[in-house]
Amino acid sequence: MVDLRLQVVAAVMGIIMALATAGGGSKPSGAFEFEEATVNAIQLGFRNGTLTSTALVRFYLDQIARLNPLLRAVIEVNPDALAQAARADAERRRGASGGALHGVPVLLKDNIATRDRLNTTAGSLALLGSVVPRDAGVVARLRAAGAVILGKANPSEWSNFRPVESGWSARGGQTLNPYVLSATPCASSAGPGVAAAANMAAVTLGSETDGSILCPSSANSVVGIKPTVGLTSRSGVIPITPRQDTIGPMCRTVSDAVHVLDAIVGYDKLDAEATGAASKYIPRGGYTQFLRVDGLRGKRIGVPTVLFEGYDQVQLAVYEKHLNTMRKHGAIVVEDLDIATNFTDLYDKETLLMNAEFKLSINAYLSDLLRSPVRSLSDIIAFNNKHSVEERLKDFGQPDLIAAEKTNGIGARERAAIRRLKGISANGLEKLVKEHRLDAIVAPNSDASSVLAVGGYPGIAVPAGYDKGGVPFAICFGGLSGYEPRLIEMAYAFEQATRVRRPPTFKR
Hints:
Domain Amidase: 56-445
Protein name: Amidase domain-containing protein
Distance between the termini: 16 Å
Strand content: 5-15%
Keywords: Signal
Signal peptide: 1-22
InterPro entries: Amidase_dom (IPR023631), AS_sf (IPR036928)
Strand order of the largest sheet: 1-3-2-6-8-7-12-13-11-9-10
Order of helices and strands: HHHEHEHEEEHEHEEHHEHEHHHHHEHEEH
């Protein structure tokens, strides 16, 4: 099996190098450059006639066909993607094209429902063949923006609500990191992160409960935006917990991610409470106005000491260099801060609540399906037991699913846990930000994910470097609810000042 995998790696690397060599120096003048294409470049290509949506979709389908046998980032391609692209091209010829995502192929994490010929399974065989009643709220907005739904990306099964390897699902297999194949692709949105990094889609969409956008973005050298909970609708998304679930973009640049964010935010009557509460944060004129190269100027950025512990001196030196870059671009960096609360029980309280909320949420989701092989959490557990080989029960088990099934709703213990997590947020990040008048905190990779998760706060991961083995790492800008405008300003200015990201190396 190992020899076979190495043969596949060698074959794919040979193809990649051959194509790169064949293309070197022979590209016609004015021809569109597909590799690393940004949303802005794509729209320019549409306008000047060097690109069509059909050609763009064909490029990404070819990328998937060549790379996916190795990377396993894509679980399914949309059989209607080329038809959608042709429709976008026809609209453009009639002068009826829309905004930034019109005709742009988007890859969705396989927990985001589409009412089409694609499956929505969270990577599980238990949901294969299920039929959703409607598009997820964010998908409806993408379609309204004219985007092409390219397919579904491989998640960690049940968004890691089984303790599987990061990026593994029974349907999709094991997703690999395109920079260093033996490195982790990290967390449940691994597929979208890898696909974006390896140019298998123009832009991708992931979901996060705690770390599942920020971690794979960090590990795969892409930009990930974890929005304030409720800023984007969760309707039609296979859930874990409504207190923390959020849907956000994972793209190669901050600008691309912001274009996607602009398209998917807003009120949804099927997620009314959360989207209604968060709609007040959406700025008039959208988020692209905050793509400012001087976005660090005057910003107060906090550095909580505890979040940088455990890193080697080489990586810490890179982070210190980045802090100095922020200072040079006008930021006020406040170091050696203490998040003044005790986090020791955060994980236990978060897990206690997730178990109860997952059972309630997944049973509600399953009951809404038009057709499904399973109708309850207990059915999922039974399915896994019956298909133990395919679902690799011997390797991973399903302890989280079983623990959730044993819960009985939101009782006294759960309400106490909610109060405790609210206290952690109020006495932690909220207190720190207000006392020091911060616009953001910064942290390595996804190390602030739990702090942001339990408060429903936003964060943006931006590529920050590569370790001595070539594995990417990131810096995360995090803030309070509704802080997206200032986080975008800082993330974009940092990206433009550092320009760290480079294409994958497929290192063995």
